[in-house]
Design a protein that fits this description.
This protein has about 140 residues and is mostly helical. The protein has 5 helices and 2 strands, in the order H-H-H-H-H-E-E. It is elongated and about 55 Å long.
């Protein structure tokens, strides 16, 4: 295999995973950390029981907590448990998802420059989120 093509493939791979943010609960589900505060853990447990989805195993999958929240809190959004769990779940429900190079943080652009210099090949595509639209095409990967 041509070394330049091999480096180009590595740069493309690194570039594609460079700016991926926290995963959405709708995709591959992250887990609620085991070190969560005891108060929020109890509220999540109550929420799961109210949704008829008792959890015997830790950690909780965030997607299951979201589903339980939707089931229980659809008509009770004013309740304390729904407010507290909703506030906690906000951290799992955002995406970076930029589509323009100018929107990337300076640290990400600097890291891309570093990778390009280190490997000696340009980065062509950068994925910034789990959605296909959250991709920056810097240059066409098959153009020399």
């Amino acid at each position: 295999m041509n070394t330049k093509i091999g480096y180009r493939a590595i740069a493309l791979l690194i570039g594609s995973i460079l700016c991926v943010s926290s995963t959405f609960a709708g995709g591959v589900s992250p887990y609620v950390p085991l070190t969560v505060a005891p108060e929020i853990e109890r509220q999540i447990e109550r929420l799961m029981v109210l949704a008829d989805v008792p959890q015997l195993v830790r950690p909780f999958r965030v997607s299951q907590v979201f589903d339980a929240y939707e089931k229980v809190c659809a008509d009770q959004r004013a309740s304390t448990i729904c407010k507290d769990v909703s506030k906690y779940l906000e951290r799992f429900h955002y995406g970076f998802g930029v589509t323009q190079l100018s929107e990337l943080p300076d640290a990400a652009r600097n890291y891309m420059d570093y990778i390009e210099r280190k490997l000696g090949v340009p980065i062509h595509i950068v994925s910034t989120g789990p959605d296909r639209a959250e991709t920056i095409t810097l240059r066409h990967p098959f153009d020399a």
